Amino acid sequence: MDVLFNSINVRDLLSSPNIDDVTSPLSAPDLRLLINRLQVRSVDIKSKVRQYILSHYSDFSTLFSQCSDVVSRSEHLSSEVSNLIQLISDHPVEVETKAVIDDIVIRNRELKEKRELLGLLAVVLELSDKLRFVKEEIKVGRVEQAAEALRELKAVLVTSSNETTAFEERQPLVYGLLKDEWTKCFEEMQEVLLRCMDNAVWFEQENYTVHLKHQSNIKGIDGIELQTVLKAMDAVGIMDYGLSKVADLMIKHVIAPVVSFRSTIVVEETNQESRNGAEANLKILPSADPNVDSMDGGSMYSVLVDIVKFISKSLCFGNCTWMICFGRLTWPRMSDLIISNFLSKNVPDDASKLADFQKIIKCTSDFEESLKELMFIASSDGKDERLSKFADNVEVHFASRKKVEILAKARNLLLQSDFRLPEDGTRRHSKVKDDKKSESSSDLVVNLLFTSERCVVSEAASGLMKLVHGTLKDVCLSSPRVGLEFYHAARDSLLLYEAVIPVKFERQLDSINHSAVLIHNDCHYLSQEILGLAFEYRSDFPASIRELVFADLAPRFQLLAEEVLRRQIKLVIYNLKQAIDGADGFQNTHQMKQYESAKLSIDQVIFILEKVYIIWHHLLLPSAYKRSMSMVLEAVFSRIANDILLLDDIAAEETLQLQRLIHLLFENLSSLLDSVVAINQSGKLQESPTQTLDDLIPSLRKLRKLADLLDIPLKSVTEAWEAGELVNCGFTQTEVEDFIRAIFADSPLRKECLRRIESICY
Predict the structure, then answer these.
(1) pLDDT surpasses 70 at 527
(2) Euclidean distance between CA atoms 459 and 463, whole angstroms
(3) CA distance 524 to 510
(4) How confident is the model over 212-224, as a mean pLDDT?
(5) pLDDT tens, position by position, 477-508
(6) How far apart are CA 333 and CA 326, in angstroms?
(7) What is the rounded CA–CA span in Å between residue 29 and residue 26?
(8) Which residues contact 735 (CB under 8 A, 6 or more apart)?
(9) pLDDT (0 to 100) of residue 438
(10) If DSSP codes are grouped into helix, strand and coil, which group holds residue 762?
């Protein structure tokens, strides 16, 4: 049978099996040959198969017989199974069994539910009986038993806030009714207990007396013990709420008077029997002993300890838990009263008195220890030692008080300063500039630390620096904690100037006046003084604050000084340009009306500059004056020169008028120009200046040359350009050409001169 399973290679059946391209199509003869050979091969295979079957006939016969037997047995088994299924279907025992089991399950579930309902009913009845018991106990005045029952019911009926929402969604209705009933009982209990407290404890405000009655009578119920009331409040968890009113009244009518009394006091404690039971009374009386010091701390603390002992004995009955609760309600306010009315008022106002405060510190510490023994404050909680912490930090409190005083002085100094100059302030400062050996007795003329200049400052700046120097001297003599507070006081005082003065003098800063110049001087002076503070005091500072300096403040004041001066320069230039605008570009000055208008503008410019000169020359630092006035004059001269050079047609008579206006300007500003050039680079007056006016004010040379050009022939103008003279004065080629076209009529000579000017480029 191998021939059946071996593959037939078609290529072997072809006439030429070695064909290279297996994808090439076969020819017709090859196909016919292939068909014939396949038919021969097929016949051969069939013959071999037949021979194989005949040779194994017995084997095949046995195999087919076994298969027939297997099929017969399968059919018989199927018939037997069918008969069994039919037999079972005629008698359904399992159905009856399932029905019985289901019935048993249902009856068991019903029985369990009934038992649970019976159990729940029993619990509801028990809770209802307990609630009824609570009501009856409250009515007859047995509040302690009622409170215990309420506490037990609370554990069952009242859930925590986290569980309330989820539980209420699935709770039975009866549970909600019981809970509401418990709430009513609780509120009734709370009302009864609070009424008992009001009946047992009352105050006489006029006589500073506290009355404690050990038995209360309310709603016809006699003999409710105060201690029983407290136990009931503790049981139902309203101790804080129940004692809060008593604690508040105790603070107002007992503690506060003791702390705030100006005379020494004593506590009178009495116990008496009355028809309503025992009473305990506490009364505050002035001391009859003249030898007792008034409010020395020790006597006040002694009285307060007696009051706390009375509370512990007569109100809390020695119960530590109740005492801690009462202390928690009263101690914060009580300690605040002692601090504000006693300790803070006895903080020394001078460093030499710090040692005397040690007695108060010791009394304060002993007082808190006594309160700890009485369980009024917690012995293990450092947060309750508020008085000791305040007293131990007396240095800081002293420094804080001094800091407030320093800042108040600085603020008053700045607010009261009006920046007025003394009557002889201008004259004296003028002498400073004219004679370097001159010494002014005025405190307002100060030396700058890092320059050789002197300037006038305001009383505010002078007084402020005196205050800062005095404060820093105290830093050198103080402890690190006090020194740090003093350092911040000095720093904040300087910052007050930056915060107050620019706001107070905002209107003056927007106008041209001496106040703005003084503010500039102040800021410049303060910036240099601040830089010098580190060198002057740093080595004497306490080691822990030696790295603290004021260097970061110096640039702020320097920037403020520059900003103030920049605003002044901007205002001056704006006013000058407004005045020059009145000249209408210096057009048609050969007409009388236009000339008068232009002359008026020049007069206004001169007036403004003279006003500025009077203020600046006598107040500004020499270097600042030189720089600022040069900027102002440059703006004026460049504007006038540009306006004249923009004229497109200038008559011959008009040139003379323009020249006259320029000469008028220079004649009236000669002293002002001399004041600028008389100051050298170091800010001192000098005999032979190292800088010329042309160097300081480039437009000055241009305007002067322009005045000359208005009265010289065309050839001279051309030659001046060719020689480079006009370029050195700041003229451009376009300006010269336009100037020639405006003055000189069109002619071959003008064309020639313009050609010559165009041919030369610089």
Answers:
(1) yes
(2) 6
(3) 19
(4) 75
(5) 777 888 888 889 999 999 999 999 999 888 88
(6) 12
(7) 8
(8) 645
(9) 41
(10) coil
